[in-house]
Write a sequence for this structure.
C-alpha cells in the first residue's frame, strides 16, 4: 500500500502546473510567448469572455501546464481580470507561481509580489527587462530580494529569451520540492500581526482550511480587510466576537479603514525593500520615453500627432494590402471559380449546385476573403501601437475630449479596440469601474469603424477614390470619432447625467515589440474575421443565393425574393443617393455582419450568365502561372508603395480582360458623392447582431442594445442625407 501511494505521488509530480502572474506592462505576454511559442492555446476563462492563454508541453520528462493569468495590480480585486487571477490562485493552487516583475518599476511590482507571497505557494520571481534597467544605470541586488522574500529571483530579458531556461529550471525544481521552497514570512507590523492571531484562531477549523484548500494566513488577512467576496464565498461570520474585536483594534489604533491600512503597510514594505535592493545613478539623464512624451503628450501637439498616426496607419494599410487585395480578388473570381466549376462538371453536378458554389459561396465568401490582407494589415499596425506603448498615450491625450462627454481617458481604450472589432471592445468595458461609464462607452463603441467595415470601404474607395485612398479612409474613421463625441455630449445631457470620474492611468515606457509577438497578437485579432467568414458569412451567402433564385426558375434577380425585399426598402434610401434594390438588399443582410454587405453585392451585382458568349478558358497550367506572376507583381507593388513617401495603393478599377469586377459595376451604379454617402451609412448604421449579443451578455439586458439600434439608425440616415444632399447643393 505504501509503495502504491508513493508511485501515485511520483506520477502526480510528473504533471506540474505553473501559473504566470504579474502587473500589466511587465512583459508577461512576451515571456509566455517566448516560453510556449506555437504551443500556446488562446481561449476564454470558463463562464467569462476574458482571454485565457495556456500551454502544455514536456520539459525535463515532465508534462508542464503553463497558465497565463490576466494582468493584475492587486489580489484585492476590483476588475474581472483581478477576480479571475485571484480565484485561480486560491482555488486551483498551482504547483508554483512565476511572478513577472518589471525591473524598471520595482516598487510598484513588489506590492503585488507581497500579496502573492501571502498565498503560501512556491514562487519564482522573473526580474524581467533586466537589460532596460541596466541601461538606466539601475543596480539591483538580486540576492537581497531573494533572501528577504524567501523565493528565487531570476533576471530575464523575455524579448531576447535571456534567462528563460534558468527560470524554467528553477520553477520546475520549486514545484517538485514544494516543502523546501515555502515563501518567507513577511511581518506586517506588530499591530496587524497581533490582530491576525485571534482571527486565525477563529478560522482554523473552517472546512476549507482543514481541507488544505485555503492558506490560513491569507484567509485571515482577507477577513481582516473585510473582503466582501471572500466573506460571501466562504460564509464567514464577520461579526464573530474574535474577528470584530481585532478589526476594532486596528481601526482604533490607526484611525482608518483596515483595508487602506494594510495597503499602506504593503506599499511601505515594497518601498523599503526597493531602497535596500535598488541603487539608481545620482545624476539621471532624461530618458527616451520622456523626450518622446514631451512631443506626443504636448498640450497642443498631442491630438495632431494622434490624428497623424492614425492617418499613417490607414495609408500604410492600403499601400501594403491594396495590391494583395487585387490579387486575391483576381484569383477567387478567376482561377478558383473556374477550377470549382470544372470539378463540379466532372462530378456531373446539376446546374443549380454549380451556380450555388460558384456564385453563392465563392462569389460571396470568396470575395470577402479577398479583404483578409487589409484587415490583417490594420490589425498589425494597431498591435504595433499597443505594444509600443503609444495606445496608452492616445487615451491620455484624448482624456480632455472624453471628459467633455462625461467619460475619462480610460474609456478611450475600448473605443480604440473598436477599430479592430466592436465585440471584444464591448467586453473590454468591464475594466471600467463605474456602471455608468461602462454603458455609455458601450453605446459609443459601434461608431468606431471596425475591421468588418473595411471591405466595403476598399471596394468603394477603389472604384471612386483610388488616388486618395488613405485620406478617404482616414476621413471615415475621423468621422466615426466625431460622431461618438457628438452622441456622447447628447447622452451626457440626457441618459447619463453627472460628472466624469478622475482619470488615473499608467503610461508604460516605449518599447519595440518583437516580430514574433506582433505576429502572434495580429493573428489572434485577425482570426476572428476568418472564423466569421467560414461560419455565418458562409450561411448568409448561401441564404442570399437562395433568396436570389427563389421563386425557383426566376429569370431576373429583381423579381426574386431578395429583389422584392430590396424594392420595398429602397425608397428609404433614395434621398441618400443609393435607392436601388441592390444597395438596399445589401444593407439589410449587412445587419448580420458588415462584411456581408460586400458579399451580397458581389452576388446581386453580378450579371446573369450569357450563354451565347464563348470565351477561351485558360488551362490549369496557365492559371497557375498567371497566379504566381500576379502575386510577384503584387509583392513588388506593395514594396514600392511602402518606400515611396506618397505611394498610393493600387485600388484601380482595371480588371483582367473579359472580367467584370465588382468595382467596375459599382462605378456604374453609384456616383462619387453617393458612394461616399453609402460608406458613411455603413459606418454609422446599427451594430451587427454579434455586437448586440455582446451588449446583452455584458449588461444582462437588451436595453442598451435597443438604444444602440434606434439612435444609430437615425444617425446613419441623417448623416448620409446631409452628405448627399449637401454635396448636391454644392454641385459635387
Amino acid at each position: 500500500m505504501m509503495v502504491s501511494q508513493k508511485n501515485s505521488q511520483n506520477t502526480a509530480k510528473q504533471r506540474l502546473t505553473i501559473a504566470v502572474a504579474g502587473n500589466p506592462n511587465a512583459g508577461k505576454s512576451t515571456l509566455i510567448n517566448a516560453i510556449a511559442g506555437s504551443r500556446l492555446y488562446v481561449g476564454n476563462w470558463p463562464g467569462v469572455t476574458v482571454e485565457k492563454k495556456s500551454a502544455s508541453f514536456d520539459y525535463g520528462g515532465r508534462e508542464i501546464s503553463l497558465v497565463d493569468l490576466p494582468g493584475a495590480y492587486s489580489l484585492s480585486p476590483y476588475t474581472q481580470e483581478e477576480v479571475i487571477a485571484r480565484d485561480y490562485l486560491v482555488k486551483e493552487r498551482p504547483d508554483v507561481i512565476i511572478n513577472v516583475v518589471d525591473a524598471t518599476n520595482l516598487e510598484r511590482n513588489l506590492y503585488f509580489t507581497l500579496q502573492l507571497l501571502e498565498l503560501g505557494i512556491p514562487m519564482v520571481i522573473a526580474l524581467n527587462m533586466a537589460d532596460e534597467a541596466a541601461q538606466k544605470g539601475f543596480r539591483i541586488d538580486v540576492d537581497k530580494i531573494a533572501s528577504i522574500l524567501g523565493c528565487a529571483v531570476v533576471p530575464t530579458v523575455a524579448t531576447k529569451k535571456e534567462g528563460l531556461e534558468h527560470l524554467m529550471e528553477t520553477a520546475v525544481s520549486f514545484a517538485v520540492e514544494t516543502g523546501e521552497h515555502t515563501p518567507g514570512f513577511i511581518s506586517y507590523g506588530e499591530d496587524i500581526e497581533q490582530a491576525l492571531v485571534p482571527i486565525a484562531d477563529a478560522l482554523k477549523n473552517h472546512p476549507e482550511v482543514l481541507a488544505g484548500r485555503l492558506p490560513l494566513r491569507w484567509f485571515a488577512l482577507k477577513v481582516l480587510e473585510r473582503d466582501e467576496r471572500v466573506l460571501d464565498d466562504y460564509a464567514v461570520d464577520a461579526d464573530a466576537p474574535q474577528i470584530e474585536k481585532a478589526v476594532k483594534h486596528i481601526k482604533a489604533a490607526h484611525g482608518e479603514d483596515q483595508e487602506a491600512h494594510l495597503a499602506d503597510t504593503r506599499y511601505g514594505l515594497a518601498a523599503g525593500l526597493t531602497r535596500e535592493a535598488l541603487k539608481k545613478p545620482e545624476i539621471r539623464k532624461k530618458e527616451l520615453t520622456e523626450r518622446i512624451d514631451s512631443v506626443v503628450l504636448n498640450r497642443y501637439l498631442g491630438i495632431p500627432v494622434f490624428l497623424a498616426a492614425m492617418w499613417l496607419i490607414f495609408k500604410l494599410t492600403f499601400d501594403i494590402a491594396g495590391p494583395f487585395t487585387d490579387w486575391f480578388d483576381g484569383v477567387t473570381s478567376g482561377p478558383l471559380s473556374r477550377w470549382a466549376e470544372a470539378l463540379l462538371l466532372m462530378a456531373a453536378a446539376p446546374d443549380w449546385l454549380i451556380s450555388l458554389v460558384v456564385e453563392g459561396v465563392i462569389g460571396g465568401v470568396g470575395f470577402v476573403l479577398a479583404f483578409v490582407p487589409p484587415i490583417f494589415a490594420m490589425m498589425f499596425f494597431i498591435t504595433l501601437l499597443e505594444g509600443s506603448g503609444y495606445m496608452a498615450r492616445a487615451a491620455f491625450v484624448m482624456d480632455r475630449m472624453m471628459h467633455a462627454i462625461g467619460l475619462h481617458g480610460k474609456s478611450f481604450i475600448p473605443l480604440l479596440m473598436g477599430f479592430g472589432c466592436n465585440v471584444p471592445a464591448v467586453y473590454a468595458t468591464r475594466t471600467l469601474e463605474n456602471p455608468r461609464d461602462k454603458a455609455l462607452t458601450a453605446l459609443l463603441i459601434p461608431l468606431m469603424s471596425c475591421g468588418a467595415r473595411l471591405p466595403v470601404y476598399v471596394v468603394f474607395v477603389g472604384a471612386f477614390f483610388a488616388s486618395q485612398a488613405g485620406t478617404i479612409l482616414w476621413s471615415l474613421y475621423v468621422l466615426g470619432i466625431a460622431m461618438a463625441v457628438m452622441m456622447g455630449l447628447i447622452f451626457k445631457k440626457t441618459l447619463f447625467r453627472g460628472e466624469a470620474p478622475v482619470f488615473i492611468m499608467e503610461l508604460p515606457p516605449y518599447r519595440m515589440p518583437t516580430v514574433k509577438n506582433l505576429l502572434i497578437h495580429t493573428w489572434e485579432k485577425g482570426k476572428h474575421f476568418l472564423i466569421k467568414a467560414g461560419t455565418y458569412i458562409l450561411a448568409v451567402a448561401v441564404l442570399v443565393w437562395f433568396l436570389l433564385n427563389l421563386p425557383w426558375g426566376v429569370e431576373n434577380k429583381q423579381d426574386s425574393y431578395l429583389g422584392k425585399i430590396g424594392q420595398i426598402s429602397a425608397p428609404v434610401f433614395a434621398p441618400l443617393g443609393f435607392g436601388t434594390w441592390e444597395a438596399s438588399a445589401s444593407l439589410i443582410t449587412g445587419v448580420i455582419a458588415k462584411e456581408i454587405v460586400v458579399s451580397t453585392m458581389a452576388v446581386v451585382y453580378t450579371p446573369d450568365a450569357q450563354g451565347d458568349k464563348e470565351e477561351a478558358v485558360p488551362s490549369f497550367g496557365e492559371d497557375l502561372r498567371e497566379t504566381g506572376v500576379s502575386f510577384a507583381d503584387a509583392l513588388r507593388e506593395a514594396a514600392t508603395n511602402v518606400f515611396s513617401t506618397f505611394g498610393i495603393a493600387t485600388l484601380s478599377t482595371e480588371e483582367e480582360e473579359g472580367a467584370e469586377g465588382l468595382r467596375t459595376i459599382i462605378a456604374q451604379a453609384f456616383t462619387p458623392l453617393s458612394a461616399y454617402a453609402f460608406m458613411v451609412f455603413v459606418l454609422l448604421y446599427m451594430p451587427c447582431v454579434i455586437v448586440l449579443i455582446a451588449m446583452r451578455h455584458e449588461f444582462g439586458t437588451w436595453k442598451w442594445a435597443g438604444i444602440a439600434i434606434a439612435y444609430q439608425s437615425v444617425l446613419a440616415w441623417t448623416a448620409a442625407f446631409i452628405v448627399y444632399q449637401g454635396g448636391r447643393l454644392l454641385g459635387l
Remarks:
- Residues 302-346 form the longest helix (45 residues).
- The beta strands are 15-22, 40-44, 51-59, 62-68, 96-102, 123-128, 139-140, 152-155, 278-279.
